[in-house]
Design a protein that fits this description.
With about 290 residues, this protein is of the alpha/beta class. It contains twelve helices and eleven strands. A seven-stranded parallel beta sheet has the order 3-2-1-4-5-6-7, sandwiched between helices. Strands 10-9-8-11 form a four-stranded parallel beta sheet. The longest helix has 17 residues.
Length: about 290
């Protein structure tokens, strides 16, 4: 059995093509939803025409948006998988097989630890990406290293990623794949959906990484940059829930120029349409 352990928006976007390909080839797989981004991934399953998860590890249908909540959620599931192996093998991993984890999030770490506790092999998709700074980004760089050292298979999406993995002299088998699965996701979205875009030229902006939005100085710099751009160009700012929270907490929301077009988190197809039509994009993340 192939287990796909997924929890965040970016993970679902990048693993959707894998699950679609498994289904097309009639290969049995089991989709495990960690619940980290429960609300967003629920909408994305509709977009990518994916089935509902076989297992949901969190009952709530809203996203985890704070560090404190994320730590509690992670530790609770890690503890449960360690002390109740019968539940782990009965409800989560009922058959022998391999567990696919992706990237560098808390869901990545949780998936590896739960799968290893159940005695399964682990394959790390998008392995080998490094910043070479232990605490930047944090905790992503530490999670990457921890998972890469313990995975049985490591799928490297580029020559640079493959070289990083081989330089680490890891026990797992390194497998070079041609490119990132997000390219397959974009091809699917472009063929399956369409979206209306403004007639006039515009710039698209988004900001969501915790190290940016939870730091008042950095978020203030973002607001200043957006205002400077909006003074010369039409600017659409797509605001995530946590970003709006910190803008208000730091008193920065009122500083945004009134000419900036602010939109709540969009349907993925609509966002990709804007992305394709924008003159350029301002973002602090690579999984937009």
């Amino acid at each position: 059995m192939i287990y796909c352990f997924i929890g965040t928006k970016a993970q679902l976007i990048k693993m959707a093509p894998v699950m679609r390909e498994l289904r097309q080839r009639h290969l049995p797989f089991r989709y495990i939803d960690s619940g980290q981004h429960a609300a967003i991934t629920r909408e994305l399953r509709r977009v990518f025409e994916l089935p509902e998860p076989d297992v949901c590890l969190r009952d709530e249908v809203r996203d985890i948006t704070s560090t404190r909540e994320a730590i509690r959620w992670y530790l609770r599931l890690l503890w449960k998988s360690c002390v109740d192996r019968a539940w782990l093998r009965r409800e989560v991993f009922p058959e022998e097989g391999i567990c696919l984890i992706h990237g560098d999030t808390l869901s990545t770490l949780l998936g590896l630890q739960m799968a290893r506790s159940a005695g399964l092999k682990v394959a790390h998709v998008e392995a080998g990406l490094r910043s070479f700074h232990w605490l930047d980004p944090f905790p992503e760089e530490l999670i990457r290293i921890f998972c890469m050292k313990r995975a049985n298979l490591l799928f490297a999406p580029s020559a640079e990623a493959e070289a990083n993995l081989r330089a680490m002299r890891l026990p797992g088998q390194v497998v070079r794949v041609e490119g990132n699965t997000v390219a397959d996701a974009l091809r699917w979205i472009e063929s399956a959906t369409g979206g209306l875009t403004p007639a006039e030229p515009f710039v698209l902006a988004t900001c969501h990484r915790l190290e940016t939005i939870a730091n008042r100085r950095r978020l203030s710099q973002v607001v200043d940059l957006l205002n400077r751009v909006a003074a010369t160009r039409s600017l659409i700012f797509v605001v995530h829930g946590p970003t709006r929270h910190y803008l208000r907490q730091f008193g920065l929301e009122a500083r945004l120029s009134p000419v900036i077009i602010i939109k709540d988190l969009l349907d993925y197809g609509e966002f990709i349409a804007l992305l394709g039509a924008a003159q350029f994009v301002l973002s602090d993340g690579g999984s937009i």
